[in-house]
């Protein structure tokens, strides 16, 4: 059964969510996890990609946008409008930046989701939380790293 952790982002600044995402990606990467990021759209996927490139070389995280290299070739894969179940194969951690719950394969161990600061985003996160609970997943909520 997958564990779902919601990280609550307290700042409405657009960079706050993406900075938290990159911080958590680094934590998961350091634990040798294979990660797929489901972005809301291509612009968000490219923003995550750009932030990961800005990490200092000694802490580099190998990653690619879907279609820019072999799908299984890097520990971190960033996608946006592709079928989610197919992308989650060979990955054990999902970062969900979408408004809806992604379709997943059974072997996913952990889902990392986010509660944004705006009211619309909070309501969408509540809906995802209820959906995950109906699926019988273990749920936790933590403050997002800054």
From TrEMBL:
Q: Does the keyword Transmembrane apply?
A: yes
Q: Which UniProt keywords apply?
A: Membrane, Transmembrane, Transmembrane helix
BP terms from Gene Ontology: DNA replication; positive regulation of DNA-templated DNA replication initiation
The molecular function terms of the Gene Ontology recorded here are:
DNA binding; DNA-directed DNA polymerase activity
Q: Which Pfam family, giving just one, matches this sequence?
A: DNA_pol3_chi
TM spans (from-to): 6-26
What SUPFAM superfamilies does the entry give? DNA polymerase III chi subunit
Q: PANTHER family, from UniProt?
A: DNA POLYMERASE III SUBUNIT CHI
Protein's name according to its UniProt entry: DNA polymerase III subunit chi
Native source species = Aliidiomarina shirensis
């Amino acid at each position: 059964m997958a564990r779902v952790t919601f990280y609550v982002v307290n700042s409405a600044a657009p960079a706050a969510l993406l900075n938290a995402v990159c911080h958590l990606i680094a934590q998961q990467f350091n634990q040798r996890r294979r990660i797929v990021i489901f972005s809301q759209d291509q612009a968000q996927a490219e923003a995550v990609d750009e932030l990961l490139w800005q990490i200092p070389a000694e802490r580099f995280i190998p990653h690619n946008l879907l279609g820019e290299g072999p799908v299984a070739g890097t520990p971190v894969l960033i996608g946006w409008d592709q079928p989610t179940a197919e992308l989650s194969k060979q990955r054990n951690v999902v970062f969900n930046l979408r408004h809806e719950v992604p379709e997943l394969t059974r072997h996913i161990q952990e889902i990392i989701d986010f509660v944004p600061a705006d009211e619309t985003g909070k309501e969408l996160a509540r809906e995802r939380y209820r959906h995950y609970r109906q699926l019988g997943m273990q749920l936790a909520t933590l403050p997002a790293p800054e």
